[in-house]
Write a structure and sequence with these properties.
This protein is mainly alpha-helical and 152 residues long. It is built from five helices and two strands, in the order αββαααα. It has one domain (2-151). 66% of the residues lie in helices and 7% in strands. Strands 1-2 form a two-stranded antiparallel sheet. The protein is elongated, with a radius of gyration of 20 Å.
Length: 152
């Protein structure tokens, strides 16, 4: 019962009585809203503020990159299907272009490792960033495998 009474550090995801409440301000639409109170261990407060500032600076690039890449994947697949049906282009062109777009998508995930609030609540920011970066690496690997498959 007492364990649940300890505040949970947003950075590490661990409960600790040393966690202090800090207020983060961010003008961004997705970042922690202005005057959001969170708990963090004192040794991670500076990292938390830097992460929140980085997110506020880059959230539009992140969103444009994600949605733009998804649109590009769908567009390339549709155009590739139409071109391969109407012309004598090999199917590998479609696979290679999809692989390139997926690599771009994975690069965006790796560069902007912003996970969902639920993941941050469950794991803490530090672990959520690592998991998100590994997902980006996995996505890049999948795109590279598609390219290799298209070339064979």
């Amino acid at each position: 019962m007492e364990r649940n009474m300890k505040p949970k550090c947003i950075w590490t995801g661990r409960r600790d009585e040393r966690a202090v409440e800090v207020t983060l301000s961010s003008p961004g639409s997705l970042a922690l809203r202005a005057e959001t109170p969170v708990h963090v261990l004192p040794e991670y407060e500076q990292q938390l503020r830097e992460f929140n500032s980085d997110f506020a600076r880059n959230e539009q690039r992140f969103l444009y990159g994600i949605f733009g890449t998804i649109f590009m994947i769908v567009f390339l697949v549709l155009v590739g299907l139409i071109l391969t049906a109407l012309t004598s282009l090999p199917d590998s062109i479609l696979i290679i272009s999809a692989g390139l777009a997926i690599i771009l998508f994975g690069g965006i995930i790796y560069r902007y490792p912003y996970s969902t609030p639920q993941t941050v609540k469950w794991l803490g920011i530090e672990k959520a960033v690592k998991v998100t970066r590994w997902c980006g690496i996995g996505t890049i690997t999948f795109g590279a495998a598609l390219i290799i498959h298209g070339l064979l």
